[in-house]
């Protein structure tokens, strides 16, 4: 447990004052630009990450929102309840209501994920055509969707906005925003709750590393530059529109640290 605590302290110190949160959006944009340049220049080495069936893609990225959702859910619930009791002296009922309000950010994220991925599929179907290996004498079929084309062993050529760039950037930024609550949370050194929060926090940090790494792999191995750029811009817009605009309003899920601007947040998690 001491090793867990030391590791958590180092990571929390690195997240203090919003340094990581402030730089991550620019890092993601830089990865897209640099990764696309390497891909277009054919300077990317052959690695297992080029294969879409690699374990990280199959077991993590394909269900990225599920991983993010189910790790953030207990983290937000526990830290918000503790924060509400320690900082605002709320009773149990008001603390629970505050927890439910903050958990609604996950419902907002789910709606954003669903709407954007459906929109990407719509654009790809709208702009695509199907190439099949049928004989020249056979009549040419028309396909309305990518799924119909694939069922006939065809290849669908459409404008495929990078869902990976969108979702991985949004998930990474959302996690960084939510773990910011530790900058203003006080928990006793020997508390069992502190151990639980440390485990969830380290798991979320590890998950964020995977998301950024797989974002890098997407940038250097897949999609055209315009598809990746549009994907990450939509992800950044979803993050900015929620955590930097809507969540500042009264009728919203609210921020992890209410009414405290990013530039003034102080690292005060007891060590």
TrEMBL record:
Keyword set, alphabetical order: Endoplasmic reticulum, Hydrolase, Lipid metabolism, Membrane, Signal, Transmembrane, Transmembrane helix
Molecular function terms, GO-annotated: coenzyme A diphosphatase activity
Taxonomic superkingdom: Eukaryota
Pfam families: FIT
UniProt membrane topology term: Multi-pass membrane protein
Keyword Transmembrane helix: yes
GO cellular component terms, semicolon-separated: endoplasmic reticulum membrane
Record keyword Repeat present: no
Protein's cellular compartments: Endoplasmic reticulum membrane
Span of the signal peptide: 1-41
A Gene Ontology BP annotation from the UniProt entry: phospholipid biosynthetic process
Transmembrane segments: 58-83, 103-123, 195-222, 229-247
Name by which UniProt lists this protein: FITM2 protein
Organism: Circaetus pectoralis
Gene designation: Fitm2
């Amino acid at each position: 447990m001491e090793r867990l605590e030391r590791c958590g302290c180092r990571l929390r110190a690195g997240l203090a004052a919003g340094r990581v949160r402030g730089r991550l959006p620019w890092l993601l944009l830089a990865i897209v630009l640099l990764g696309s340049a390497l891909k277009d220049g054919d300077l990317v080495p052959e690695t297992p990450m080029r294969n879409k069936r690699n374990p990280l893609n199959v077991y993590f990225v394909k269900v990225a929102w599920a991983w993010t959702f189910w790790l953030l859910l207990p983290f937000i619930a526990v830290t918000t309840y503790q924060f509400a009791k320690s900082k605002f002296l709320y009773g149990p009922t008001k603390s629970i209501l505050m927890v439910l309000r903050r958990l609604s950010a996950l419902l907002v994220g789910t709606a954003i994920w669903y709407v954007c991925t459906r929109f990407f599929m719509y654009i790809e179907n709208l702009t695509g055509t199907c190439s099949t290996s049928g004989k020249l004498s056979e009549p040419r079929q028309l396909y309305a969707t990518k799924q119909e084309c694939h069922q006939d062993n065809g290849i669908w050529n459409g404008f495929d906005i990078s869902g990976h760039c969108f979702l991985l950037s949004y998930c990474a930024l959302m996690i960084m925003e939510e773990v910011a609550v530790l900058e203003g949370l006080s928990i006793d050194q020997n508390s069992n709750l502190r151990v639980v929060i440390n485990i969830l926090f380290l798991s979320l940090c590890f998950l964020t590393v995977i998301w950024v790494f797989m974002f890098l792999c997407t940038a250097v191995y897949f999609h055209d530059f315009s598809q990746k750029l549009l994907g990450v811009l939509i992800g950044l817009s979803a993050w900015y529109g929620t955590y930097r605009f809507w969540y500042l309003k009264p009728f919203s899920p609210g921020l992890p640290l209410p009414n405290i601007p990013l530039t003034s947040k102080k690292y005060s998690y007891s060590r």
